[in-house]
């Protein structure tokens, strides 16, 4: 058009190419920048993790952790080598078959019920078969030969519990309007246990199915609190290596990294300095035991409380085993330590009413310093098509009969009864400790671990294989607990054991003398003092337990769990 200038075609094409080239270069620069940012954030995250590791474990501890991890992985590869794997698998299979032979009844007289009967049995037939099942060959806990396991409050208490069961067999606390009596009893159980542990005004709690669920709920509450109040998305908790394994289960279930802290000899309490070093911005919970399961030792809860207050971190005290003994130690005239809500840093406590509270199995409590902490364990679904759903813990429906049995137990035994039980149980424990430390037939070979104050005494041997002693005690009918790291045996004293603690001591003397005689014979025969350990405890803890990679133990334990469901 007249008066309009036109760009030459060659120049126009050149401009277009340059413009496209600039856009491509800009895009490339943006991609590179994005990659660099991602790499920088990745590097920053893992640098931070490395620094926290160094702060928590120190240089030597970090190298030790790395060495253990490398050794474990290399040994795992060795166990998976073709020739080795087949041998390991063969031995594991043999061990599991042997275990099944012990646990699963067999033979021509054994009848298995794998399908529903075509017609329902008569009451007489059902009761007869139940009697047969109750009479199956078993370790005689009734005679006091079982460590822990059965926390028996007496035949008269069992009769009361059975009647309570009968009255509330169909009750379910998820329907408090239908079963108001169960709601009342559950609230009163929580109130009574809170009072035992000197809870402040405004404290709260719930009942659970057992100590594991109580611990799970306390860990969940701590995790949720940290997320809601501090935005923590990579939660960590710090616990003694002797802390109940339910804390490790909570870590696995809820994605909480678990730091285990050593409990060194001679006191076997958690090392407070190590705990302090491990605290960081991701820490959501500190843990102490009162007492712990393995050795019966009460951790330094006062020191943990001070640390919890200083760093503004929740502190959970696991009293599942101590339950209705530790609150009564002082009134029963025994040495004790502060461990409960009187320490300001303690924010939650787990207590099993089904242990030394003598309630039926399936009863426990988790207690909180205030209702806000409790609310963090709640599950509420406001928009479900089935209606608004809310539950205080893992279970939905729960057996009201168990709550009734627990309430009946607490009301029947009462404070005076629990003080008397504490006096008997802890008194017998101290007599066993005294025998091990002063009896000439025991103190030269056995050593009590730490300074236990409650119902558990753990001991190892300075001269003999402790697992051989455990197996020899099993041969005499005792069902004691074998421990590892360090190798030891523990006895959790119950009311049935109170009646036979002297036989326990005399059998220990006989077993030790028998093991020493075996050594003397081997020396005379020129075979050396130490023989090959062949018992179950020696096999599991002495041999498999000493491997740097625990995959064999995991397979054995998995096989044990499978066996439980073999009809």
From TrEMBL:
The protein's name: sphinganine-1-phosphate aldolase
Pathway: Sphingolipid metabolism; Lipid metabolism; sphingolipid metabolism
Family affiliation: Belongs to the group II decarboxylase family. Sphingosine-1-phosphate lyase subfamily.
Gene Ontology molecular function: any one: transferase activity
Post-translational modification N6-(pyridoxal phosphate)lysine, affected residues: 355
Gene3D superfamilies for the chain: 6.10.140.2150, Aspartate Aminotransferase, domain 1 (3.90.1150.10), Type I PLP-dependent aspartate aminotransferase-like (Major domain) (3.40.640.10)
Keywords: Endoplasmic reticulum, Lipid metabolism, Lyase, Membrane, Pyridoxal phosphate, Sphingolipid metabolism, Transferase, Transmembrane, Transmembrane helix
Cellular component, GO annotation: endoplasmic reticulum membrane
Lineage, top ranks: Eukaryota, Fungi, Dikarya, Ascomycota, Pezizomycotina
Domain of life: Eukaryota
Chief localisation class: endoplasmic reticulum
Topology of this chain in the membrane: Single-pass membrane protein
Enzyme Commission numbers on file: 4.1.2.27
Cofactor: pyridoxal 5'-phosphate
Biological processes per GO annotation: carboxylic acid metabolic process; sphingolipid catabolic process
Subcellular location: Endoplasmic reticulum membrane
């Amino acid at each position: 058009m007249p008066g309009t200038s036109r760009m030459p075609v060659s120049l126009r094409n050149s401009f277009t190419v340059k413009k496209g080239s600039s856009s491509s270069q800009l895009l490339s620069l943006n991609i590179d920048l994005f990659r660099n940012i991602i790499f920088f954030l990745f590097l920053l995250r893992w640098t931070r993790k490395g620094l926290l590791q160094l702060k928590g474990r120190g240089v030597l501890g970090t190298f030790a952790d790395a060495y253990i991890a490398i050794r474990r992985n290399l040994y795992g590869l060795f166990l998976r080598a073709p020739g080795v794997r087949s041998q390991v698998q063969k031995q594991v299979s043999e061990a599991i078959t042997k275990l099944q032979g012990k646990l699963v009844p067999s033979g021509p007289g054994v009848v298995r019920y794998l399908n529903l009967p075509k017609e329902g049995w008569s009451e007489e037939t059902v009761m007869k078969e139940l009697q047969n099942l109750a009479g199956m060959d078993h370790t005689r806990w009734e005679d006091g030969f079982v460590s822990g396991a059965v926390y028996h409050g007496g035949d008269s208490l069992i009769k009361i519990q059975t009647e309570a069961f009968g009255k509330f067999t169909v009750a379910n606390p998820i329907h408090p309007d239908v079963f108001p009596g169960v709601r009342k009893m559950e609230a009163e159980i929580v109130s009574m246990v809170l009072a035992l542990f000197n809870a402040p005004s405004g404290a709260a709690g719930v009942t659970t199915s057992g100590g594991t669920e109580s611990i799970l709920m306390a860990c969940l509450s701590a995790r949720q609190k940290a997320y809601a109040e501090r935005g923590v998305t990579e939660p960590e908790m710090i616990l003694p290596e002797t802390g109940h394994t339910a804390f490790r289960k909570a870590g696995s279930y809820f994605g909480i990294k678990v730091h285990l802290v050593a409990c060194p000899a001679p006191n076997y309490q958690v090392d407070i300095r190590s705990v302090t070093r491990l605290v960081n911005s991701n820490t959501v919970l500190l843990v102490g035991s009162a007492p712990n399961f393995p050795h019966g030792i009460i951790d330094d809860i006062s020191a943990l409380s001070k640390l919890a207050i200083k760093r503004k971190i929740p502190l959970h005290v696991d009293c599942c085993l101590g339950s209705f003994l530790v609150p009564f130690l002082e009134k029963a005239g025994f040495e004790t330590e502060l461990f409960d809500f009187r320490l300001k840093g303690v924010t939650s406590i787990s207590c099993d009413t089904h242990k030394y509270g003598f309630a039926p199995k399936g009863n426990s409590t988790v207690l909180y310093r205030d209702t806000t902490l409790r609310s963090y364990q709640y599950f509420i679904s406001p928009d479900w098509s089935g209606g608004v759903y809310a539950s205080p813990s893992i279970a939905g429906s729960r057996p009201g009969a168990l709550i009734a049995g627990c309430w009946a137990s607490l009301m029947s035994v009462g404070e005076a009864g629990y003080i008397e039980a504490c006096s008997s149980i802890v008194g017998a424990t101290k007599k066993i400790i005294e025998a091990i430390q002063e009896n000439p037939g025991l103190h030269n070979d056995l050593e009590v671990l730490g300074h236990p104050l409650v119902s558990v005494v753990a001991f190892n041997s300075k001269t003999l294989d402790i697992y051989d002693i455990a197996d020899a005690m099993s041969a005499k009918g005792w069902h004691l607990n074998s421990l590892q790291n360090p190798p030891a045996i523990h006895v959790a004293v119950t009311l049935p054991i109170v009646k036979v603690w002297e036989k326990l001591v005399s059998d220990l003397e006989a077993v030790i003398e028998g093991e020493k005689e075996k050594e003397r014979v081997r020396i005379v025969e020129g075979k050396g003092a130490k023989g090959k350990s062949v018992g179950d405890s020696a096999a599991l803890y002495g041999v498999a337990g000493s491997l740097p990679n625990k995959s064999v133990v995991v397979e054995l334990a998995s096989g044990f769990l499978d066996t439980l469901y073999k009809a």
